[in-house]
Specification:
Elements: H1 3-21, E1 30-32, E2 37-39, E3 42-44, E4 46-51, H2 61-70, E5 75-79, H3 82-85, H4 100-109, E6 113-119, H5 148-167, E7 178-183, H6 195-210, E8 218-221, E9 231-236, E10 252-257, E11 268-269, H7 273-285, E12 290-297, H8 331-344, H9 346-349, E13 355-360, E14 363-369, E15 375-381, E16 388-392, E17 395-399, E18 403-407, E19 415-416, E20 424-426, E21 437-441, E22 447-451, E23 462-465, H10 470-474, E24 480-489, E25 494-502, E26 506-511, E27 514-520, E28 528-536, E29 539-548, E30 566-573, E31 578-580, E32 585-590, H11 593-597, E33 611-613, E34 623-630, E35 638-641, E36 648-652, E37 655-660, E38 687-688, E39 697-700, E40 709-716, E41 726-730, E42 732-740, E43 762-766, E44 772-782, H12 801-809, E45 814-818, H13 821-824, E46 834-842
Parallel strand pairs: 4-5, 4-12, 5-6, 6-7, 7-8, 8-9, 9-10, 10-12
Antiparallel strand pairs: 1-2, 2-3, 11-38, 13-14, 14-15, 15-18, 16-17, 18-19, 20-42, 21-41, 22-33, 22-34, 23-32, 24-29, 24-32, 25-28, 25-30, 26-27, 26-29, 30-31, 34-40, 35-39, 35-41, 36-37, 36-40, 42-46, 43-45, 44-46
Helix pairs in contact: 7-8
């Protein structure tokens, strides 16, 4: 294929794609019936994706939304985060990455719709589920039940957000992009715990939402008793069997999990795209008309926004767009092709209910008809192991196990969920190829350090009888609370066991200012105990315990009163005699001295508080570090590698990039990479990085650095070696594809009412915008062996495949090549052939 043919093919694909997905983001009236949302009088099939505005920075919102649109989405869904919009009662904040109006307008400018999930409870693995902590201290308040103080505050915030959206003319009836709003969130999962109060609260929340006159429908997800006209929707890994609670409501899926969230101490979860595509196709096969990926872009829990307990800073979620904003292949591309196939069926999906046709054991078809003739069909094999051949509509079809085929004309298969033909990506920030990653090593930097003193550090400490619960004491102004007491020993020194019990989430123990123990929980159970043999001196001894919160609870019944901190301290001597210290007088200090001084801020970068030198002390507990670095050249995001550190927090130029904890390793067993996509998925099915830290790479947005020196500050709790820290940026990516002559044809080659005569599947290569294909590292047509990154030529291999690809692709952002003997000749007649290629994209 000549280069001009390749370019023309890509151009045609773009035109077809934009015909499906562009220019649809504006609405006037939005209603619904039993089939779908009705926008400006037309029923619509809608594909949506969650992007939470504060989990990225405002400068990259347009790019994230562009990639979402090109991936086939119609709608962007986001929560609204009350605790950061109203950090102090009556004081509001809507700036920077919390500029909600700007985010919604950015979506509108891209021509997409918005689903605004106001809540105001979000969950979202977000600190305190999105509630501001000051809410907890209102006298007589009880969250999420028929409680007057809570309802007053909730209604006030709902009204505030609706008013801001109306002032910006952002609801559909005003010409804006907002077509849906959500009140509450997954309350049906916990309603049982609130009894009659919960039932009354659901009724009240619905009435409060409707009374705000948004002119768009409201939804409640996971809420079987959502009263009319509120639409109840489904959340989960699979929602094909979901049925709304009224025949007048459409079948909608607000959270289709693209993966799962990450917690410190856990292996990394991922979800095979074949299974995700299967679940989405099944949903539309069974009558669904709106589906949302949670997440489409997950992003980062910057600062202390991560929820608890122990939610990691990365919120990547194995989403189609990764934490850094790069397209994740093949997930993004395979889902894009799925979306295009579903859109080809739209006129049928919105005009009839599906007709079920059994095809055999675990084999079925659902057909949608449209008068006067014509139909679209979904053929499903829901067996977890056995592939099948089926007869449908006079033709025979091959159905891999756990797959759905889409036939927009009831005849031609244009997509199968198990057959991934989109390109794949190789490597990320953790791959240190010099061709695709630029790295700055901080070993030669000049360092400053500041050692925290153990225990009480100022005169604003206080004393109380007994052990205080931590969240009520700190009010979340800090992750840290010191518990300090003295222990008197009248006789000679003695050896005892110290037993410390905590509700969570972690604690360091010091005896006579010497570190003696560290305890911590996990995401599933944050509570823990520390049992340590210690030596007490004759006379007074000091016991200092630093309790640490790693994100306040964000989910569950009555989650708002879940506690943290130390609740029991006892000494047990070698004869098992126990002395309970829990009820004695304890002194308390909220926060760390470095926090109080503001060591994380750029204003103290040159303060004399810092001890300066070329060789910072290593493996020190409770120490602050600072240094400067020159950011690697480029325009893309940066990655901070903290593998050499223990546990703490990090800041770049005064901006918090989150908590880190590389010292907490995942269990050594339980991983399954690669993972068989066949069969029901759950969050523990597909795991990777067993025996490794959950996270060592931390996202630094490019907008947070500047030319010249940038300030890095770390608060290290356990001990590490800061000289081994590196800062990297990606300057390219390796991409690859392997397509067989028998693979599905390009979805965009099918046209309604055509004979579908396009004869060959194709390899498509696409770089990130701004990057171009700079080399073809491998190309083979015939029977290539291996997989992406490890290809080799097979016994059958055509000549001159590499130069053909080099001519067609090098210097272009995208290229395509048909898997055809017309391009490469026939090196082995009668043998099924494949085309394999690996390429490098560079800035």
């Amino acid at each position: 294929m000549e280069r001009k043919d390749s370019v023309v093919l890509v151009f045609i694909a773009v035109l077809v794609f934009e015909g499906y997905f562009c220019g649809r983001g504006y609405a006037g009236t939005v209603t619904y019936d039993h089939k779908a949302l009705v926008i400006n009088g037309q029923r619509r099939v809608l594909l949506s994706g969650s992007i939470h505005y504060p989990r990225s920075t405002e400068d990259v919102w347009p790019e994230l939304i562009r990639k979402s649109k090109e991936g086939g989405l119609d709608v962007i869904e986001t929560y609204v985060f009350w605790n950061y919009h109203e950090p102090v009662k009556g004081q509001y904040y809507f700036e920077g990455r919390f500029d909600l109006v700007k985010f919604v307008k950015t979506v509108q400018e891209a021509g997409l719709f918005v689903h605004l999930r106001i809540g105001p409870y979000a969950c979202a693995e977000w600190n305190y589920g999105g509630f501001p902590l000051w809410l907890h201290f209102i006298p007589g308040i009880q969250f999420r039940t028929t409680n007057t103080p809570f309802k007053n505050e909730m209604k006030r915030f709902l009204a505030k957000i609706v008013r801001i959206m109306k002032e910006g003319k952002l609801f559909a009836s005003q010409g804006g992009p907002i077509i849906l709003a959500q009140v509450e969130n997954e309350y049906g999962n916990v309603e049982w715990a609130y009894g009659v109060g919960g039932e009354l609260y659901v009724q009240w929340a619905a009435e409060a939402a409707i009374g705000l006159n948004t002119s768009v429908p409201w939804v409640m997800c996971q809420q079987e008793d959502a009263p009319d006209p509120i639409i109840n929707t489904c959340n989960g890994f699979y929602c094909d069997q979901f049925t709304p609670n009224s025949p007048s409501k459409p079948k909608m899926w607000t959270e289709s999990y693209s993966g799962w969230f990450l917690a410190f101490g856990n292996a990394i979860p991922f979800r095979p795209v074949e299974d995700l595509a299967f679940s989405v196709a099944r949903f539309f096969e069974m009558g669904g008309t709106l589906q949302n990926y949670y997440m489409y872009f997950g992003g980062t829990n910057f600062g202390r926004t991560a929820g608890g307990p122990l939610i990691a800073t990365s919120y990547d979620y194995d989403a189609p767009i990764d934490e850094y904003g790069f397209i994740r292949q093949p997930k993004w591309g395979h889902l894009r092709d799925l979306h295009m196939a579903i859109k080809q069926c739209e006129t049928y999906l919105v005009n009839s209910d599906p007709t079920y046709i059994p095809l055999g054991p675990n084999l079925e078809a659902h057909v949608y008809y449209k008068k006067p003739d014509g139909c679209a069909a979904f053929l499903a094999n829901i067996d977890q192991n056995v592939d099948a051949n089926v007869s449908f509509n006079g033709n025979f079809y091959s159905l891999p196990a756990w797959s759905v085929s889409i036939l927009p004309d009831c005849k031609n298969v244009i997509f199968n969920t198990a057959k991934v033909v989109s390109q794949r990506s190789l490597g990320d920030f953790s791959h240190r190829q010099t061709s695709s990653v630029k790295e700055t090593i901080l070993a030669t930097s000049k360092w400053g350090w500041y050692k925290e003193q153990v225990g009480i550090w100022s005169n604003n400490s206080f004393t109380s009888s007994g052990l205080l619960e931590q969240i009520n004491t700190t009010r979340d102004v800090s992750d840290y609370l010191w518990y300090t007491a003295s222990i008197d020993v009248t006789e000679n020194e003695k050896e005892v066991y110290l037993n410390v019990a905590s509700l969570g989430h972690a604690a360091m123990v010091f005896v006579n200012k010497r570190f003696v123990g560290f305890g911590y929980g996990n995401h599933e159970d944050a509570s823990f105990t520390v049992t340590q043999k210690i030596m007490l001196n004759q006379g007074k001894n000091t016991l200092d315990m630093l309790s640490m919160i790693i994100g306040i609870q964000n989910y569950g019944p009555w989650f708002d009163i879940a506690g943290a901190g130390i609740f029991s301290v006892a000494l047990v001597d070698l004869m098992n005699a126990k002395e309970d210290l829990s009820f004695k007088a304890w002194s308390y200090q909220v926060g760390m001295e470095g926090e109080y001084l503001g060591l994380d801020q750029t204003s103290l970068a040159n303060s004399s508080l810092w001890t300066m030198g070329n060789y910072p002390p290593v493996n020190q507990t409770l120490i602050w570090y600072k240094t400067t670095f020159i950011a690697p050249e480029g325009n893309g995001p940066l990655s901070l590698n903290l593998a050499s550190m223990g546990k703490g927090q990090a800041w770049i130029n005064g901006e918090g990039i989150g908590r880190y904890w590389p010292a907490y390793l995942a269990p050594t067993t339980g991983c399954s990479e690669p993972c068989d996509y066949r069969g029901s998925y759950d969050a523990s099915k597909c795991l990777k990085n067993c025996g490794q830290p959950a996270q060592i790479l931390y996202h630094i947005p490019r907008s947070w650095v500047h030319p010249g020196e940038n300030l890095l500050v770390l608060h290290e709790e356990l001990g590490g070696d800061p000289s081994k820290i590196t800062v990297s940026t990606r300057t390219g990516q390796e991409i690859c594809a392997l397509i067989s002559e028998s693979d599905p044809l390009p979805v965009n080659s099918w046209k309604p009412n055509s004979e579908f005569k396009h004869t060959s599947p194709e390899v498509r290569l696409d770089c990130e915008r701004g990057w171009k294909i700079t080399s073809i590292n491998f190309a083979s047509f015939g029977t290539p062996k291996g997989q992406c990154g490890e290809f080799s030529h097979g016994s059958c291999s055509a000549e001159n495949v590499l130069p053909v690809f080099q001519k067609a692709c090098i210097g272009h952002e995208s290229c395509a090549m048909a898997v055809s003997t017309l391009n490469f000749g026939d090196p082995c007649v009668g043998v099924l052939k494949s085309l394999a290629v690996e390429a490098l994209c560079s800035a």
